[in-house]
Design a protein that fits this description.
434 residues; alpha+beta; 14 strands; 20% strand; disordered N terminus
Length: 434
């Protein structure tokens, strides 16, 4: 995702007794992870200087002393916001995607109770607190670490809960594409949860809490794990790289653009009303055929993408953010950016203005028996309407993208992600109790 990184300052406290202690000893009843300061419902991640500073006992500190969390651990995303967290937030170092199917006998009542439990857990964990019941202590000593937990509904959810009339037209199944090699067991689902954090244990802790909260109401259909570069690993914030080594997400829409909300979010007056301020997530497990890709020369790789591998600049010249000159030719009269280059085909101006907000994770799930890496991209993209966002772009790619030779779409899902829950609400309440 373009220009999305979180700063890690790695500042520690002076070792003085933490607030909420008496003579350097913690008071009784203080949470094991205390967050100081206030946080408004802005939807932004708050850093150590922004007021969400957490405290944890450090092994190097003397008895009775506490060390301040680093900025990575203290960063906090808000739960009660206009749009759910995990859509416009910066890329996170660790991610889990998990889909559930409602269990036999579970209907609207059970689904509402489940979303209430999940929302309560998400709010607690995103604040850096322990789960309300049976916390596993996996995330003990850590702060929120930019944890986001995002909830969505799949096509089948509405029939199972008797809410077919409330199912959005935009949630109709995606068309088939010739490049698809989809595993149905790892596709779709009644409910979808996206978990992201900048600490692997914090992310796993959230995954276990969400799974345990499902109880007898829902069972896991599929689950996938992903990662990105850690915040602070580069000298300056940079657009992410994928496992092909390419800078990935240069032309992502930016919240500062005047038409961003129109492209990415359902308007407040949109239909159905329960989707106001929500978005639609397309989720694809895209395997990269890395052995084949890595046999290409640097020039061949750059021709496939249409950009320089080193800095993401278009082959037509300039820097990463320079507009691509699609008409530029070389001394032989050949197009500098090949006609089937991935970045040429995906341009909004070549797809009727279609735009998606990419927010992926890379994945590596081991080595196959023949030595082939099972690795690639957990592609997650957001749009106000997938029929005007993902579908036209993917249809265009399906007809002649040079990159299609080196990737394989292995699973797919489409989910309606409602707007954020207001204070006192749970996610999806306007659907389930409307």
């Amino acid at each position: 995702m373009a220009d999305q990184s979180t700063k890690a300052s790695n500042k520690e406290s002076s070792g003085e007794p933490a607030a909420g202690s008496v003579d350097g000893k913690p008071e009784q009843g203080i949470s094991r992870r205390r967050l100081l300061g206030t946080a408004g419902a802005t939807g932004l991640v708050l850093g150590a200087a922004g007021g969400a500073t957490g405290y944890a006992v450090g092994s190097s500190g003397s008895p009775g002393q506490s060390l301040a969390l680093t900025s990575v651990g203290a960063d906090r995303a808000m739960f009660h916001v206009k749009h759910q967290a995990g859509i416009t937030d910066a890329l996170q170092a660790r991610g889990h995607l998990v889909a559930f199917d409602l269990a036999a006998g579970s209907g609207r009542k059970e689904a509402a109770a489940l979303l209430r439990r999940w929302s309560d857990t998400a709010q607690r964990l995103m604040s850096g607190e322990a789960a309300a019941h049976d916390d596993t202590d996996v995330a003990r000593d850590a702060g929120p670490s930019s944890l986001t937990i995002t909830f969505g509904f799949g096509y089948g959810f509405f029939a199972r809960t008797g809410l077919e009339k409330q199912r959005p037209v935009a949630l109709d199944p995606l068309p088939e594409f010739s490049s698809d090699h989809l595993d149905k067991a790892r596709s779709n689902g009644d409910l979808w949860v996206q978990i992201g954090a900048n600490d692997a244990l914090v992310a796993f802790h959230a995954l276990r809490a969400i799974q345990k909260d499902a109880g007898s109401a829902a069972r896991v259909r599929w689950q996938m794990n992903g990662f990105n570069r850690s915040p602070g690993a580069t000298a300056r914030p940079m657009t992410a790289r994928n496992l092909m080594g390419q800078i990935d997400g240069t032309r992502n829409p930016k919240p500062s653009e005047p038409d961003f909300d129109k492209r990415i979010f359902v308007p407040a007056s949109g239909e159905p009303s329960w989707m106001a301020n929500g978005s639609y997530a397309v989720v694809r497990r895209i395997r990269m055929l890395l052995d084949d890709w890595e046999q290409l020369s640097l020039k061949q790789q750059e021709d496939v993408i249409g950009r320089r591998k080193a800095n993401g600049a278009p082959l037509s010249g300039g820097t990463e953010t320079t507009a691509m000159d699609l008409e530029k030719v070389d001394a032989n009269g050949d197009l500098v950016v090949p006609i089937n280059a991935h970045s040429r085909i995906t341009r909004p101006d070549k797809n009727g203005g279609a735009a998606i907000l990419r927010r992926p994770f890379s994945f590596h799930d081991g080595i196959d028996a023949d030595g082939t890496p099972d690795a690639g991209l957990l592609f997650v993209c957001w749009q106000a309407d997938p029929l005007r966002g993902f579908v036209p772009v993917q249809r265009k790619l399906d007809r002649g993208d040079a990159l299609s030779t080196y990737i394989r779409h292995e699973s797919s899902g489409l989910f309606a992600v409602p707007g954020g829950a207001a204070e006192g609400e749970y996610v999806g309440q306007r659907l389930l109790e409307g």
